[in-house]
Design brief:
Family (chain B): Belongs to the TPP enzyme family.
Number of strands of chain A: 4
Bound molecules: thiamine diphosphate
EC number (chain B): 2.2.1.6
Shape of chain B: globular
Domain Thiamine pyrophosphate enzyme TPP-binding (chain B): 374-522
Oligomer: heterodimer
Protein name (chain B): Acetolactate synthase
Number of domains of chain A: 1
CATH class of the largest domain in chain B: Alpha Beta
Largest sheet of chain A: 4 strands, antiparallel
Number of domains of chain B: 3
Strand content of chain A: 35-45%
Catalytic activity (chain B): 2 pyruvate + H(+) = (2S)-2-acetolactate + CO2
Number of helices of chain B: 22
Largest sheet of chain B: 6 strands, parallel
CATH topology of the largest domain in chain B: Rossmann fold
CATH superfamily of chain A: ACT domain
Radius of gyration of chain B: 24 Å
Helix content of chain B: 25-40%
CATH topology of chain A: Alpha-Beta Plaits
Radius of gyration of chain A: 12 Å
Strand order of the largest sheet of chain A: 2-3-1-4
Chain lengths: 88, 547
């Protein structure tokens, strides 16, 4: 199953490492990602496409536990598939 | 003032009086500031010892434990202690010195990517990038370590920031706040409890961490529902609670393991369905609906789907769950089961039966003593045969199962609670893992009592080799152990060694009445095993008893 996760995080230099580490350790593989600085509040927007057999809600909850992550959103699974297809 | 002086000032703003650590090049400015600070520093003899002392300090008080180390190898030596704190949700702040900011990334002497190393073993970590953010980061570190589900936080401070000039500002400690709990979930849970025929509390370490022991005890009093406890919860359910079924899991009490298999409602209270508790997960509590209470949303549905989950502060949640189910038959079952599976200490042989010794020791120690233990058979015997008046009085490396935990944790306990009897129960393997901390005991005259159960084996591994690896005893024989009495003497610690059952009472008396530190060396049979046991991959009702 492929999923798209959008998150907002504090703009610390290691924030992407933190997020990617959790994705890997909790059983998901990264397919595509992007990160963009936003002007307000020294935050970054991160979008991840991940695949994995495990329950995606568990990953969402683990990511939301990161102190630097201020907001997280899971795109509905069908929408993601088309997004991945478009990107491919 | 300097950044280094600021670090100590901020620690004091957070009420820190004691820290554990070890100096070195990249943290020298902070050690220099310490020289005339009111914060008392306890020199360990290995940074792992400092980390575990901070863990012991935190676990026995509920306050943040603080440890410090230099860059590179100093920081790597902290790693195991922080990982242990992470797995057992212990509030610890670790401060590490780092090389000058300009040298980071140049492979300078003792320069390592400590922030990178910290990612998987801390709740949060920081590399301080400017003097401006130093105080704020330290405040955040204390807040994160204690908020929600507690955990370790690391702050890596480059040397240029330690020596730079900065202004010190007052700081108001934040109030602890919790989201209000949804009333409808509470009502649903209460209804489920009220309607259950065989409800069971599955009590975890979260109750103690939430400082909600009284609330749990009130809830037990009101509901009279039977309860089982995880390793970390021991001491939470009063030992005289009539429906206290005891320790659950791989080496748990049969009464607890059978009850969990039979219950129709499992009320998981700050526990996390660890594999050492559940055995084969899909056979665990097979007939039960689950109410899962926790502070950490990521624990809900992680391993076992909850029918109702309630997130939040146990001090609010537990009092709201008072229901009175009609469960007299189930209570009667519990009482019979407790009697049927009570631990037995009749042992006909002349040598020393460790469970009996620990049970006697438990009764001989002052009411409010603390036991820190290491990892292995002796750890399970402590959990089975000693009784605790609070989870803060039983420190056992649960999630990580780290050998070498006991001695430095007991040092942390003794520093935090100087008037309390701090006991270590260790094995001959584990004891040698942080034996250098005897130096810390000597240096600070800490009256830590050490009980060393010596089977001349890595007993727990040996037990598995015997049962599951065809008695092929690969690398578990420690019959070439040092002479532990001579070792104790080298640190001015009086000691006695016993090997016979009729020596036990006098030796325990000597230990309990000793003024300062004391080592009781207990020679036990290398063939003794921990029973009962749920074999790996089996269900909890398939526990086996030894011969
Ligand atoms: C740091 C660490 N290394 C290895 C292990 C694996 N291990 C678990 S129990 C055990 C044996 C412990 O022996 P000892 O301390 O003598 O205790 P006993 O089981 O004999 O009571 C070992 C090696 C561990 N838990 N921790």
């Amino acid at each position: 199953m492929t999923h798209t996760i959008n998150l907002k995080a504090h703009n610390r230099p290691e924030v992407m490492e933190r997020v990617l580490r959790v994705v890997r350790h909790r059983g998901f593989a990264l397919q595509q990602m992007s990160m963009q600085q936003c002007d307000i509040n020294q935050e970054v927007n991160i979008t991840l496409n991940v695949t994995g057999e495990r329950c995606i809600n568990n990953l969402e909850l683990q990511l939301s536990k990161l102190y630097d992550v201020s907001h997280i959103e899971l795109e509905a699974a069908t929408a993601i598939k088309s997004a991945v297809a478009m990107n491919a | 003032m300097t950044g280094a002086q600021l670090v100590l000032k901020v620690l004091q703003q957070h009420g820190v009086q004691h820290i554990f650590g070890y100096p070195g090049g990249a943290i020298m400015p902070i050690y220099d500031a310490l020289y005339d600070s009111d914060v008392k520093h306890f020199l360990s003899r290995h940074e792992q010892g400092a980390a575990f002392a901070a863990v012991g300090y935190a676990r026995t008080t509920g306050k943040v434990g603080v440890c410090m180390a230099t860059s590179g190898p100093g920081a790597t030596n902290l790693v195991t202690g922080l990982a242990d704190a992470m797995m057992d949700s212990v509030p610890v702040v670790a401060i590490t010195g780092q090389v000058f900011s300009s040298l980071i990334g140049t492979d300078a002497f003792q320069e390592m990517d400590v922030l990178g190393m910290s990612l998987s073993i801390t709740k949060q970590s920081f590399l301080v990038q400017s003097l401006d953010e130093l105080a704020d980061i330290l405040h955040q570190a204390f807040e994160v370590a204690q908020s929600g589900r507690p955990g370790p936080v690391l702050v890596d401070i480059p040397k240029d920031i330690q020596i730079g000039a900065v202004d010190f500002e007052p700081y108001a400690l934040p109030e602890k706040t919790f989201e209000p709990v949804a009333d409808c979930d509470i009502a649903k849970a209460r209804d489920l409890i009220g309607a259950a025929k065989k409800p069971l509390f599955y009590v975890g370490g979260g109750v103690g961490l939430a400082d909600a022991i009284d609330e749990l005890q009130d809830l037990l009093d009101a509901t009279q529902i039977p309860a089982i406890s995880t390793l970390k919860a021991l001491g939470t359910v009063p030992s005289d609670y009539p429906y206290n079924l005891g320790f659950v899991g791989m080496h748990g009490n049969q009464a607890a393991n059978h009850a969990v298999q039979e219950c129709d409602l499992l009320i998981c209270t700050g526990a996390r369905f660890d594999d050492r508790v559940t055995g084969k997960l899909d056979t665990f509590a097979p007939h039960a609906k689950v109410i899962h209470l926790d502070i950490d949303p990521a624990e809900i549905d992680k391993l076992r789907k909850a029918d109702i989950s309630i997130l939040g502060d146990f001090k609010q949640i537990l009092p709201a769950l008072k229901a009175t189910p009609e469960i007299s038959a189930w209570q009667q079952d519990a009482i019979e089961s407790i009697a049927k599976y009570a631990w037995r200490y009749d042992y006909p042989n002349e040598d020393i039966y460790a469970p009996a010794l620990l049970n006697k020791l438990s009764k001989a120690l002052p009411y409010d003593h603390v036991v820190s233990c290491d990892v292995g058979q002796h750890q399970m015997w402590v959990a089975q045969h000693m009784q605790f008046t609070s989870p803060r009085n039983h420190l056992s490396s649960g999630g990580a199962g780290t050998m070498g935990f006991g001695l430095p944790a007991a040092i942390g306990v003794q520093v935090a609670r100087p008037d309390t009897t701090s006991v270590v129960v260790s094995g001959d393997g584990s004891f040698m893992m942080n034996v250098q901390e005897l130096g810390t005991i000597k240096r600070f005259n800490l009256p830590v009592k050490i009980v060393l159960l010596d089977n001349q084996r890595l007993g727990m591994v040996k037990q598995w080799q015997e049962l599951f690896f065809e008695e092929r005893y690969s690398e578990t024989n420690l019959s070439d152990n040092p002479d532990f009495l001579t070792l104790a003497k080298a640190f001015d610690i009086p000691s006695v060694s016993i090997s016979k059952a009729d020596e036990v009472d006098a030796a325990i008396e000597q230990l309990v009445n000793s003024e300062g530190a004391f080592l009781l060396h207990v020679q036990i049979d290398d063939k003794a095993n921990v029973w009962p046991l749920v074999p790996p991959g089996k269900a909890n009702h398939d526990m086996i008893e030894g011969a």
